[in-house]
Amino acid sequence: MAEGNVAEVQMQPEFKVTPPVQEATEPTKNLVESFDKLFYLMAKVTRPGISNRPLFARAKRAELYKDIKAVPKDNKDLRRKIIEEAHLRDAIVEKYLNQGEISIILPGLGEQKSRYIDVLPPEALKTEETESKAPIVLIPGISNDIECVGGIVQEVAMLGRRIVVIGYPESFQGKTTKEFAAAVEKDDGYGPHVNFYKNAINQLMGIDGKIELWGYSTGAPIVENILNDPRFQEKTDNAVLLCPASSVDQSAMSINLGVVHDLGFVRQLKLLPRLSWTSGSVFKREKDQKTLRKKIFKSLLKKLGTAYDYWKSAKVREGGSIVIVSGGNDHVTKSDKIKDQFLQNPQAKLVDLQNGYHATPGVDAGSVIPYILETQKK
Q1: Mean of the pLDDT values across residues 330-345?
Q2: Of 284, 359, 15, which is closest to residue 367 (Cα–Cα)?
Q3: Who's near 186: CB < 8 A, 6+ residues apart?
Q4: What letter would DSSP give residue 323?
Q5: Could you tell me which residues come within 8 angstroms of residue 155 by beta carbon, excluding any fewer than 6 positions away?
Q6: Where does the pLDDT of residue 123 fall: very low under 50, low under 70, confident under 90, or very high at 90 and above?
């Protein structure tokens, strides 16, 4: 073997996948749970503190409880159907709380770790059609763990689809390095994260394994980057960009004001308990990791406010589509401003949530996810 080939082999990433561990409760803190007792008194969630159900699951359970109370007692079939749905959702939550860890040593950047989940729908929800579909791989929003997309996971699984979520290495449940943080700060785009996610996806799903690739907010331009790689274009059946970041040029102040504006969705009070605002880990984290997380988050925030056009040349397999979900009230990424431009990509299809906020795909996933899957078929 030539000397150059030896060096090349030595520079390949190293991997380690830790099998999932069944958590007793959500391993990250959700700031919205500060209002848990108030939500319960308002009958927006089921009783707090007696189960391991995350807030988004208890919000849905409260709706089901309200539904069954409205059904006449002699309508046993409908009551049984609602109870069965509650049990199915509990089974999905159990799988959601079965979280593993992937570790990737990137040459020159050191070891990056993040949480992942692989949620297969209960057997009762599988159909011949859903079994024929590639698993969905979802990259969450900026520096996030898994919790922020818990509602999406639940609704995707309820429609009989398998979904895999991979957190960020700088997230509260992840672990990163100063070299990775420096690379993120120096890079003109999302290069270090794209590198991490390509390797993570290949390790978890197989190099030749077919996938459907979704990205939410900052996860969307990472997906766009990945889909500029011919190897991933060939393995990706469909893609979904949820409220994609890096759509327009804007300042950090504009983004922060957009976040405040986005809270307007709380006027629909039933949606608020489904929101996840991750504020830390239930486990003690090293001080240096907190510092690195802030540094990477700040760097990504600048990129979020920079207009890139990775979506123009993003591709999936022939016959597939790239669905862009845009909210008319999304003042965070402001993707609505260029929704028509997205259609310059010949594989693009638009889901126009005219009254949707940046948080809408997450907090109202039960309405948005079926809309996305129907749009893919058109």
Answers
A1: 95
A2: 359
A3: none
A4: E
A5: 365, 366, 369
A6: very high
Number of neighbours of residue 208 by Cβ within 10 angstroms: 9
Maximum CA extent, the chain: 79
- Rounded to 5°, angle at Cα 269 from 165 and 33: 55
What local confidence, expressed as pLDDT, does residue 268 receive?
67
Question: Do 65 and 46 meet the contact criterion of CB atoms below 8 Å apart?
Answer: yes
Q: How many helices (H) and strands (E) does the chain have?
A: 16, 11
DSSP 195-251: HHHHHHHHHHH-TT--EEEEEETTHHHHHHHHTTSHHHHHHEEEEEEES-SSSS---
Residue 281: predicted pLDDT:
86
What number is the average pLDDT over the span 110-122?
96
Mean of pLDDT values over 18-25: 88
- Res 7: pLDDT: 38
Of 241, 205, 209, 243, the residue nearest 223 (C-alpha): 241
Q: Report, in angstroms and rounded to the nearest whole number, the Rg of the chain calculated over CA atoms.
A: 20
- The residue ranges of DSSP E strands in the chain, in sequence order, are 14-22, 28-30, 98-106, 110-119, 136-139, 163-166, 211-216, 236-242, 278-281, 322-327, 348-353
Nearest to 259 by CA among 142, 352, 349: 142
